[in-house]
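Annex B. Sample input.
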Amino acid sequence: MRYHVTLPSGREIPVDVAHLPNGEVEVSVEGRTMVADAIGEGASTHLRLDGRGVDLWLHGAPPDVDVAANGRRFGARVESERARALRSAAQAGHAVGEGLVTSPMPGRVLKVLVREGDEVAAGAPLVVVEAMKMENELGAARSGVVKKIYATPGATVESGAPLVEVG
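Annex B, continued. Sample output.
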C-alpha cells in the first residue's frame, strides 16, 4: 500500500509498504527498499529498518500526526493512497459540509444501511463502522436524500474518509 508523508517543509515522500508471505514487512522510500519491523504500545513505537532502530512517539491520528524521534519533534501529514483518492472524489464537485458523514477514526465498514436516493431524517442511522473492536453507528446530521455512498461493507477506511453524503 502506498502512503504519502508530507513534512513541515512541504516536501512529500511516497512510502510503499508491502506485507511479504514470510511475515516480514518491506518498506520502499525514495527508491530504497528496507525490511521493517515495528513494535508499539500506545503512543510509543520502536521501528527497526534494516537492523537500525529508532524510538518514535506518535500523537494524533492520521492524516495529521506529531512525531518525536531522536530528540526532534515535528508534524507530518500521512495519507494512504485510498484516503487521498476518497478525499479527492469527495471534493470533486461535492460540497463538504454537514451532509457528508465521515469516519471518525480508522476502521472497517460493517454495514451500509441506506441506498442512494433514500430519504432520511436527521439522526437516522446510515452506516456502521467497526473501530477498536467497537461498532459505531453513524447517523445523518440533517434530513435529506442520500446523494452518494462512498463506503462498501468490508472496506477499511481512514479517519475522515467520506462514507455517505446526504443532500
